[in-house]
Amino acid sequence: MKRHIIIGGLSLLLLITGMLLYLQFFDQDEALLSPIGKEVAKVSRPLVKYTFENLKNYNAASTLIRLKEVLKEEDDYTSYLFTYLSDNKQVSGLANIPVGSGPFPVIVMLRGFVPLEIYETGIGTNHSAEAIAEAGYITLAPDFLGYGQSASPSADVFEERFEKNTTVLDLLASIPTLEKADANRVGIWGHSNGGQIAISILEIMNKPYPTVLWAPVSKPFPYSILYFTDEYDDGGKALRKMLTQFEEKYNVFYYDPANYYRWINKETPIQLHQGRVDEEVPVAWSDKLYKDFQDEELDIAYFTYSQENHNFTQGQWPTTIARTIEFFDEKLK
After folding, report:
1. Residues 6+ apart with CB under 8 A from 152
2. Which site in 33, 57, 185, 294 is 20 to 30 Å from 263, CA atoms measured?
3. The pLDDT of residue 230
4. For residues 56 and 265, what is the distance between their CA atoms, to the nearest angstrom?
5. Per the database record, which ranges form the Peptidase S9 prolyl oligopeptidase catalytic domain (predicted)?
C-alpha cells in the first residue's frame, strides 16, 4: 500500500511539474488546471507573436508609400515626408528621392535611439542618407511609432520595442508601391539600435539584403537594454521591474536576435564599422559580432577607427560613408 501511495504521489508531482514547465516555456494564452481539473488561473501572453519563430511567419502588409510635403530640394535629390501603414497604424519618415526617372535602388535607413523630446524626422540618419541619395539611391528612414507624425506605439514598453521589427518588415513589403523604386535592389543601413533591428530583419527574412552596420547594438537581449539604464533618471529601476514581470511570462531567449545568427542568408554581404573610442557601444561588442558572423560563415568586412566615437564625428565620417557607398554600389548597381 505504501508503495502505491509513493508511486501515486510521485506521479502527481511529475504531472504538476510538467504542467508548470509547459506553462513556462510554451508561449501562448493558457489556462492552468489543478490536478483534479479545476481551472485556477489563466496566463495571457500577447507578446508571443513577436518571438523570432513567429516573426518568421509574419504576413507583412504592403501598403501605399505616400510622399507628402517636400522638406528640402537639392540639385541631386528631393527630401519628402513619407507615410505608410504598419498594423493599420500610420508610420512617418524621411524619404530622399534622386532627380531622374529611375528606377533607383533603395536603402532603408534605421536610426539609433533619440530622445523623443528632441526628435525631428530624419534625426539619426539624415547626414548619411543625404550622401547616399547624392550617389543615386532612394533612402527611406522610418520615424517609428511614437515619433514624427507616426501613430502612438504600444503602451507596453517591450511591445513598443518589438514593434520596430514589424514596422520595418511592413516598410520593406511596401517598397514596390513607391514610384521610381527598384524593389529588386534593396539594401539596409543601421546605426546603434538600428543596427540591432537590421540584424533582426536579416534573420527573420533570410533574404540577402546588402547591409551596412555602424556601431550596432549586438549584446543579447535583455542585457542590451539594461546596459544603458544608467542614463535613466531612476537608474533603470522601473525598467528592471517591468523586465522581471516580462520574464515571469516569457522566455527571453525567443526574443533575442543574438540567438538566431544562423538564420541569416549565407549570401548576405555585410559591412561593419566601429569606432574604437565609442562611448555607447564598446568595441568589444563589434569584435565579438564580427567573430560570431565569421563562425556562421557570413560574408562580412569589418572596419575599425582608432579615434572615432559612436556617431563618427571625430574626423572619420567621410571615410566611413565613402566605404558605405562603395559597398552599396558594388552590391546594388
Report:
1. 89, 145, 146
2. 185
3. 67
4. 13
5. 127-333
- CA separation (Å) from 267 to 198, 251, 298? 16, 30, 7
Rg (C-alpha) for the chain, rounded Å, is: 23
**Prior bond of 210 cis (ω within 30°):** no
Query: Residues, the chain, total?
Result: 333
Residues 6+ apart with CB under 8 A from 71: 79, 80, 81, 94, 121, 122
* Alpha carbon distance 200, 230 (integer Å): 25
3-state SS record for the chain = CHHHHHHHHHHHHHHHHHHHHHHHHCCCCEEEECCCCCEEEEECCHHHHHCHHHHCCCCCCCCCCEEEEEEEECCCEEEEEEEEEECCEEEEEEEEEECCCCCEEEEEEECCCCCHHHCCCCCCCHHHHHHHHHCCCEEEEECCCCCCCCCCCCCCHHHHHHHHHHHHHHHHHHHHHCCCEEEEEEEEEEECHHHHHHHHHHHHHCCCCCEEEECCCCCCCCHHHHCCHHHCCCCCHHHHHHHHHHHHHCCHHHHCHHHCHHHCCCCCEEEEEEECCCCCCCHHHHHHHHHHHHHCCCEEEEEEECCCCCCCCCCCHHHHHHHHHHHHHHHHC
Pairwise CA distance, residues 102 & 107, whole Å: 14
d(CA 325, CA 133): 10
Question: Which pLDDT belongs to residue 232?
Answer: 66
Q: What gap in Å lies between CA 164 and CA 116, rounded to an integer?
A: 15
**Mean per-residue pLDDT for 108-119?**
97
- The x, y and z cell numbers of residue 35, run together, are 490536478
**Are 289 and 216 a contacting pair, CB within 8 Å?**
yes
Residue 311 scores a pLDDT above 90: yes
Residue 41 φ/ψ, nearest 5 degrees? -160, 160
What does the pLDDT look like over 231-246, one tens digit per residue?
667 777 788 888 888 8
Domains of the chain with bracketed CATH: 2-44 (no CATH), 49-332 (3.40.50.1820)
